[in-house]
Amino acid sequence: GTRMIIPEERRENPQMPDNPLSATDHFWRLAVFCHNGKYNQSPRVSFVGMKYFKAQFAEFIAADGLKLPGILFEPRKKTKKVLIYLHGNGSSSVFYSMAKLSEQAKAINKAGVSYFAFNNRGAYQYHKVRRIRRGKEDKVMGGTAYELIKDCIKDIDGAIKFLETQGYSEFYLIGFSTGANKICVYNYYRPNNKVRGYILACGGDDVGIYYKMLGPKKFKMLLSKSKRRVKQHRGLELAGDDLPGLVYSYRGLYDIMYPDGNYNVFPYLEYFKKLKLSKKPLFRHFASIRKPALVVYGDRDEYSYRPIAKVINVLKDHCAAPERFQYQIISGADHGFTGKEREMNLVLANWLKSF
Q1: CA distances from 61 to 130, 138, 177, 203 (A)
Q2: In sequence order, which residues have a C-beta less than 8 Å from that of residue 168 and are 6 or more positions away?
Q3: 130-163 pLDDT, tens per residue?
Q4: Residue of 101, 160, 92 whose CA lies nearest to 121
Q5: What three-state secondary structure class fits 347?
């Protein structure tokens, strides 16, 4: 049957209040399935057996000591292959979309590949993350508001190291939204990594989104102010008054908005509108990939430059290993592939079966 780890205090006292930032509490409250695949958010039900997979809560240590939670979905037949899922940013969490996640895990498991989804350090907008440092545990601020995208290297390396202890030796990465950007950044700085192939789903143009939202004048002003705050060692201060309705530290904001930074992986707006915001080569992170890769977009992606066919063509123009790349546009799909999950999952499973 399905395995689930429940903390002792939860077993002994199921009425204890939830900590909204506790991964185990999220798992206890949200990760509930039944044989017909329906999803139930009841806080008082536990796992039952699954036809296609077994699921196990896991917590691992990132390369810099952060404790990150996740769920490992394994097929009934033992495998050495595992697909590692990287979620997007902006209040994202694997524990917020368990029904959708389980359906994708089922499709991947049926293809003979395990599926590991975890909350990276950019999960939620902001929260405290536990860290092991010099044998002692403390807490640091995490979430999208404070994250530096290059730190994804530490998360991915930590996930791979953990999965190796579970007997896995063949690794694949799938990234949705900012998760796709993170895969490109990871490959750019770790080209000789242990991952065999990448899936880049609906990679985002964050610089373009903020440039369009703020306008040229305010974009330049806020970018300069964020840079100053970082230089003044005030980067962890929140930019509340400068971004009404959004919660970001100046450090996180500068990392997202800086045109020559690591976030600017898919600079579609700059490229198509010839804005000349960057000094460094555009699409350099994407162009560094020489491993097998699958690129997937929905043709109604509300956060991407459109038409999507133009996006695919510009990626093809910047691809260093075209013979190893496949591209797929899913008709009628938005940024989250809403209503098109089954079609999306079939595309992913078929690509993995090709190895």
Answers
A1: 10, 13, 24, 26
A2: 80, 81, 82, 114
A3: 888 888 888 888 888 889 999 999 999 999 999 9
A4: 92
A5: helix
Q: How many CB atoms lie within 10 A of CB 226?
A: 24
Q: What is the pLDDT of residues 293-319, one digit of tens each?
A: 999 999 999 988 889 999 999 999 999
Residue 14, token pair as written in the block: 């199921």
d(CA 178, CA 195): 18
8 Å CB contact between 66 and 76 = no
Give me the torsion for CA of 185, 189, 192, 197, rounded to 10°. Answer: 0
Alpha-carbon distances of 80 from 6, 71, 113, rounded to whole Å: 26, 17, 8
DSSP designation for 16:
S
Band (52; pLDDT cuts 50, 70, 90): low
Are 232 and 226 contacting, i.e. CB atoms less than 8 angstroms apart? Answer: no
**pTM higher than 0.90 for the full model?**
no
Q: Which amino acid is at 102?
A: S
